[in-house]
Design a protein that fits this description.
Length: 267
């Protein structure tokens, strides 16, 4: 692996502990103004210092993140669909030249294994890896799950392994039962998405289970920015990923930050 590739990967997965906290705010690329992300800058700014990296589209990067920020950027480069149409019909939406201009640390693309446009998304992944290898930019494959697919270890293990075989450098997937089996059969680092908003305690349990069973970290969005205390949640998730605290301890961090917010609001 060339120096640039290794250097960029080390900006995302911290070499000190081989762990990663990625803040996902890319949802608008097919969902439009997602709840909690209506004004991306307002959402992102208070959270940025607690994330190791941020995953977003180039539109939100340009409009809502200060270019003087040194936060590593994981740029979503797949899209072209909306929730109103077949979601798997994605293509690559950003050129490698723009990724270089934007100084990204990794490029993210969704693969839709088992969906109508499975082949197209897998070929896009392979092409993106070829481009990334030329310039030392890693590729994060996102295992998108179609409506009719079970989020079980058989399916997610298949999707992650295919992503790795096609050359992805990191894969993002969902936590599932028997997650260790997925980790064992996937030769690249795995991070987990948070999924739909759940009660805070459940989201913290998910993060804890994932890293305990072999994930290098999280790429979490809605369970952070849709929380009643987004700062509390990202601090709590960070403490699980990097400081190995228990769910109970992490929950205290979230509750305490929530209390600070409530006291501030009360004046
Ligand atoms: C959207 C994505 C999101 O980045 C990913 O799902 C993580 O966000 P969340 O924790 O809200 O699921 O890839 O397609």
């Amino acid at each position: 692996m060339n120096w640039g590739m290794q250097n960029r990967l080390a900006r995302i997965i911290k070499p000190e502990d081989n762990r990663a906290v990625m803040l996902a705010v890319d949802h608008g690329y097919f969902l439009g103004p997602t709840s909690g992300l209506e004004q991306p800058r307002k959402t992102i700014e208070p959270l940025l210092s607690y994330a190791d990296s941020i995953m977003l589209t180039r539109g939100v990067l340009r409009t809502s993140v200060d270019p003087k920020s040194d936060k590593p950027v994981v740029l979503r480069v797949s899209g072209g669909t909306s929730i109103l149409k077949e979601l798997s019909n994605e293509d690559i939406t950003v050129s490698i030249e723009d990724c270089i201009r934007l100084n990204v640390s990794a490029m993210a693309l969704s693969i839709f294994v088992g969906s109508e446009f499975e082949k197209e998304t897998l070929v896009s992944l392979a092409k993106l890896v070829d481009e990334g290898e030329k310039y030392g930019i890693p590729v994060l494959a996102v295992t998108a799950v179609g409506k009719d697919m079970a989020r079980d270890v058989r399916y997610l293990g298949l999707a992650c392994r295919i992503a790795a075989e096609l050359g992805a450098h990191i894969v993002k997937t969902y936590y599932c039962d028997d997650f260790e089996q997925l980790i064992e059969s996937c030769p690249i680092p795995v991070i987990i998405a948070g999924g739909k908003k759940t009660p805070e305690m459940e989201a913290l349990e998910l993060a804890h289970n994932a890293v305990t069973h072999g994930a290098v970290g999280v790429d979490m969005g809605r369970n952070i920015f849709q929380s009643d205390s987004p700062v509390g949640m990202i601090k709590a998730v960070r403490s699980i990923v990097h400081e190995h605290v228990s769910v109970k301890e992490a929950c205290k961090i979230y509750e305490s930050e929530k209390g600070v917010k409530a006291r501030r609001a009360a004046g």
